[in-house]
Batch of 2 targets.
Target 1
Amino acid sequence: MPFSFLCRAVWCVVLVASASAQTAAPLPASIPTQIPGQNAILMGTAWYPEQWPESRWEEDLRMMESADVKVVRIAEFAWSRMEPSEGHYDFAWLERAINLAGKHHIVSVLGTPTATPPAWLTRKYPDTLRVEPGSQRVTHGNRAHASASSPRYREFCRRIAEEMAMRFGHNPNVVGWQIDNEYGYALMSYDEGTHRQFQDWLQAKYKTLDSLNEHWTTAYWSQTYDNWEEIPIPIGGHNPGLMLDWKHFVTYTWTSYQQNQIDVIRKHAEPRQFITGNFMGFFDGFDHYIITEPLSFASWDDYVGSGHVDPAYNGLAHDLTRGFKRQNFWVMETQPGAVNWSSLNNFLNRGEARAMAWQAIGHGADDVNYWQWRSALNGQEEIHGVLVGPDGTPVPFLDEVSQTAHEFAKVESSFRDTAPLSQVALLYSYDSHWAIQFQKHTEKYDDIGLLKSYYRALRQISQSVDVVSAYAPLDGYKLVAAPSLEVLPKALADHLLEYVSHGGHLVLGPRSGMKDEFNALLPQRQPGYLADALGARVEQYYALEKDVPLSGTWGMGEASIWAEQLATKASGGEVLLKYGKSNGWLDDQPAVVTRAYGKGRITYIGAALDDKLMAAAAEWMTQKSGVTAVFGPLPDGVEVSRRVGPGKQVFVMINYAQETRRVNLPRSMKLVLGDRQGDAVELPPYGVAVGVAGGK
Ligand code: GLA
């Protein structure tokens, strides 16, 4: 039965779920990230020909070709070269660069340059520059200095994007487009025009001030609004309803900013050219489920910064990006050894970047691009990592990139038409994340950290976890867990209950079901509209000063940071964990309750569990839900990912431990990097193996 819902604001999206048996999420019908005529998995780099004499291009492209670099992302900061003065466009140089790359079997992704408006534009039209909170207008010379909400700026963006699309929309060497660069990297503009747009947006959403006043409970602290013009932009702490609506307005602003360019590109470009944006993992400036909706697929920029890759966090960020549109994605940028913007710009260890590139592929990326090819001789990023030094010759790191790119080229066909396939989903919600950030209650509450603890434990068992919007179709999953679903309006509760009634197992974590879509408290106790199905409710929640003992079916351990005192209210509820001696209130009270409902089950975990208890919880959840391992037990430090396609499964195995690990394969398979059949592999530190087996 189709399920539709109206999401959180006037610019809602409608998702449709089909009710199928509780098996596994269906494979995507098509893989838009794989370009017809190109390898199924690609390696690329950001290339800035505008920074170099044309006589140098051939040599750069020759080096790229011999390294098996197949993609360049190009032009995203080159506005002043493409439109040197207002209305005068020069694309001849770019066309020559793109076509020369094509001769070297390198395709181009064109970035629209709207993160870097030229100096003539901002001088002549200073109203296009962003205004910071406190009314300071930013100056020219950095990037992201324009206002995404300025109608005049949008007009310039539309024109340059349209001119580019007219010129390159049919170029066979151009495979797709990236809109702008990392939107939201800078703040919104806080100018008067934007303020009015926000008030108009609120009026369109609420229609009447009575409705707004009621949903925001403005009777509190005399906040009642009698005129739309009285409503402020929230800066710092404010009414939680106003703060959440500001986030929705920011999402709306960037989505319409993006759409302005999509419209003109789609008008002129061949449909085969994709349109994407490069997002930033858990960056939370806007709701990514909404902004990625009109894109062909999502991409992200995967940087470690200081230190070394945390495979669980990085894998989670890949899976978050895959979940934006529930399909494969690209890594539009990744770290060429070191960056320049962190507190300590250490270099990744030898082999670590190769492991990261393969991790991306395992999690569903079909392209990995290094940022950047060669250092610009001046500019803010002079000493960022690169593949080619300022002298134009390779840095040692290029060896590792070439090795990985040669491997991609060698085994690419194994990945054709494949995508990860999971039995387990974790639900993520920007509204809940924001609501928690606005009122953390304990500064230690980290909803992403909690998501990661569920992810790590569940992935360890199942080797594949999807991270999807709470509103996504769920019927394909055997197990769905929502670690901090604080904002849980009625429509969402109905959606989740339908999943449970059909036989699914829903696990809710702490803080779930506390608020409605206006960030107002529900007039029920947690988990709100799901309390009846659970047959239990939260009596009281506690921000913890120190750890609290827990014991029960999952063994013994501790809760930290947050604990909720549960009480069963209906028959059939089973208490799985209880608190031990603590603050008096929690002593001997239920911490985890589970209950059968419809054909399925609903479980509530009211505390943040330690790693050992989390592992036991994951074991119980997966067993109870019939989740099976796709690979089998793994030695410590080894990550396995699986992609599935017609009649085949491809396993990417990576050893992040600092010693060699032996991995026993669940069955004999072809190890395609080493061209041999085997039933076990020895992986050195950062070692990678790719195994191909038939069937599902
Ligand atoms: C971001 C940007 C790039 C570059 C890199 C440097 O991801 O998109 O233009 O500045 O950071 O790490």
Note: Residues 200 and 648 are 53 Å apart (CA to CA).
Target 2
Amino acid sequence: MPIAETPEVMTTQRKLYIESYGCAMNFSDSEIIASIMGEHGFATTQDEFDADVIFLNTCAIRDNAEQRIRERLKHLRSNKKQNRDLIIGVLGCMAERLKDKLLEEEKLVDVVAGPDSYRELPKLVAEVDDGGRAINVLLSREETYGDLNPVRLNTNGVSAFISIMRGCDNMCSFCVVPFTRGRERSRDPQSIVHEAKELEAAGYKEITLLGQNVDSYLWFGGGPKKEFKTLTEEEKAMSVDFANLLEMTALAVPGMRIRYSTSHPRDITEKVVLTMAKYDNICNYIHLPAQSGSSRVLEAMNRNYSREWYMDKITMIRNILPDCGVTSDIISGFCTETEEEHLETLSLMEWSQFDYSYMYKYSERPGTPAAKKFTDDVSEETKSRRLQEIIVLQNAISKAKHHAYIGKVVEVLIESESKRSSEEWKGRNDQNIVTVFPKGNYQKGDFVKVLVESATTTTLQGKAVG
Ligand code: 5AD
Ligand code: SF4
């Protein structure tokens, strides 16, 4: 159905409110959902009480992420009381994990849809209109939504996400993602470049290429993932790996900043880092989750690399890009982790000098290899204490690293007004560090040279210079 054009139809257009949880990929998916629903006559609204349909695009990565959704669903009871025709959908990873159990457990939920069934959403909503409840949690080996034009939601008009692949084949033993997002598949590079150009034409200045493991991006004409060595000669000739994709994007939109996430220590290549070095518009920033500093724990996590391998990758990055920002994810208290192994994590953090880390307590996810193979045997108290030690160390490292910027000039892309003061702009430097400075005559979307004058654990503060 075309988008409604006449004023009469516009007034009867139904309204969709989407709330996103979890990772950037989910926020990017919500823009795909808005696009699909838009083609079927739904306009997005920012006001949940004005909505005919509310979708929660959910995360299942840790138990507390799911608890948050359960709490939110409780609150939505009052929305439904006010509007009996309100349709509530649970989408994304929690929907995929719990499937029809979610319909049994949460009586007010009308629609359950997994990450690969968003094209079916208008049909699922129509089924609810007809008086039923609707579910589709089929995973696909090919869906990339590559042909769709995402509707940018809650945008600052400056930076946007582009999804370059879906799913994950890594099977890290703690992780539910391979079960909720299915098999890994890469999106047609031409559609990625096209999306980047459209964003540039719309005035955007920065894109972030998204995938669970961008280093295993491989396009060879579509279909389920294959290893490069198993491609036919014809497929090899047209294949595009992640370094090629980065280069294509950097050349296609030379005035835009390009970022990407997430890298995998096993798969990141020198070719990718050399490509970053070759193009000024690819930001010097890599998110390279270590998870643990102990080779034994890494093996239990099925990460397929050792502590030494990880250190070699950091050395390779710093040799090629000495001022590259590197951040990490760390899990405390994974099954069987000993005190010495925890200390190895601290020492790896110290050695790596991460600019920042996302730090978590291990949360057992039902059905994952770790849940099947191991007992969640590190006590809650120990997990919390170890996490606290990890956080204290990271904060000290972040603070020292940020202090080292004092007196230096960094380039900042202005994203929005600073939360603290309407007199200041907020943006990020090349290394992804939040930087704040007085507005002067600059505008949102400007690239500004900023002299750093002070720094905290999270932020650089300075003044614009030229
Ligand atoms: N418990 C705790 N943290 C987890 N992560 C993934 N699964 C779990 C889990 N079961 C973390 C990892 C990953 C990040 C996205 O979330 O550090 O890199
Ligand atoms: Fe999960 Fe590992 Fe895939 Fe990341 S790479 S989504 S942690 S399985």
Note: The longest strand covers residues 409-417.
